[in-house]
Amino acid sequence: MPPRISRRDALLAGIAGSFAGRAAAEKPVEPGRKFLTPATKFEDVSRGNPVPHSLTGQALLDAKLTPETWQLEIVAEDKAKIAKPLTLSFAELTALGKTKGVRYLKAMQCNNIPQPLGQGLWEGVLLRDLLELCGPVEEARRLFYWGFHNNDPKQIFRSSLAINQVLDAAPGDLPPFLAYKLNGEPIPLVRGGPVRMVVPWAHGFKSVKWLQKIVLTNKYDANDTYALAGNDPESYLKTAAYFDSTKAEKFPAGKAIKINGTAMVGLPGLERVEYWLRADTGAKLTATDPAWKTAEWKPATIAPPPKDWSA
Ligand SMILES: Nc1nc2c(c(=O)[nH]1)N[C@H]1C(S)=C(S)[C@@H](COP(=O)(O)O)O[C@H]1N2
Ligand SMILES: [Mo]
């Protein structure tokens, strides 16, 4: 049995990428999609009315959503204490990035939508490096954080992390960071810029866009908007494979069929992606169909990361 690729090995090898299979393989398969999704081509999941990225002019300045006006506040509440509450500008954050910058390849995946929304190279500064600027931290068990929300408390999109998840990560993985670049460029407003939280191991809802506020708290319960909406607030990325197209298609008999998709490498790792081509009986395949017992699964090819990263 081939070894399973752990999530961190996949990240080191740069795989969270595409797979392809052929019913009759005669040529090597080409990946079906670009390895990095352009910032404006991600599928979008954004609350707000109007959505923050539709603001322009003075409204955008008032919302502090330009690099010149952006500010992050880190404060503490209840029994949690920090020596120095922090107000950080975009220039101060990017200056820290010059010596303490980190980069991470992450597929943004909503836990309520199958295919990842897009995959990018995110750059920023670890949240724990910012906490260090706040001096000794006492009695903090969680961090609550949110972004700009049109000054309407009902529109707030909030997430949270346990303090240990902010301070530590397994070898080869990264703890959460404040990203200000995507694919080598400033993060555009539509993708949550100027600054967005990126939580490497988590589903999209922890990666709060238009980030402006972090509160350290002694509370131990998650107050994520998604927790309140019936989701598992600690859900770690799952391993799964998705077809690029799920439309019913017809193919001529006797000719090669190319199937592309994306494999998401989650907590359990990834050994291989398999496909099964079955005769069309006209009936829908149900979960209890006996055909599953005799299914012939074939391994698909996992496309390697690009050889040339210069672009
Ligand atoms: N401020 C804010 N951040 C947010 C959201 C939101 O609605 N508002 N949606 C979250 C969810 S549920 C997901 S899946 C991702 C989607 O990221 P994307 O729009 O960049 O693809 O953003 C997360 N960050
Ligand atoms: Mo989501």
Q: Any overview of this molecule?
A:
The protein starts with 6 loop residues before the first helix and ends in a 9-residue tail after the last strand. It contains six helices and 18 strands. It is α+β, with helices and mostly antiparallel strands. Strands 4-2-13-8-9 form a five-stranded mixed sheet. Strands 5, 6, 10, 11 and 12 form a five-stranded antiparallel sheet that branches. The radius of gyration is 22 Å and the shape is elongated. A hairpin with a 2-residue loop joins β10 (177-182) and β11 (185-186). It folds into two domains: 1-23 and 238-311, no CATH class; 39-219, Sulfite Oxidase, Chain A, domain 2 (Alpha-Beta Complex). It binds ligand MTE and molybdenum atom (MO). Ligand MTE binds at residues 42-47, 108, 110, 117-118, 147, 157, 191-192, 204-205, 207-210.
Q: Give the distance, in angstroms, between the N- and C-terminal Cα atoms.
A: 36 Å
CATH architecture of the largest domain: Alpha-Beta Complex
Domain module count: 2
> Would you identify the regions where 5 or more consecutive residues have pLDDT less than 50?
12-16
Quaternary organisation: single chain
The chain-level structural class is alpha+beta
Q: Largest sheet, described in full?
A: 5 strands, mixed
Count of individual helical segments: 6
Biggest sheet, strands in spatial order?
4-2-13-8-9
Look at the structure and give the CATH class of the largest domain.
Answer: Alpha Beta
Quote the average pLDDT.
89
Name given to the CATH homologous superfamily of the largest domain: Oxidoreductase, molybdopterin-binding domain
DSSP E strands, number: 18
Helix and strand element order: HEHEEEHEEHEEEHEEEEHEEEEE
Bound molecules: ligand MTE, molybdenum atom
CATH fold descriptor of the largest domain: Sulfite Oxidase, Chain A, domain 2
Shape: elongated
Radius of gyration: 22 Å
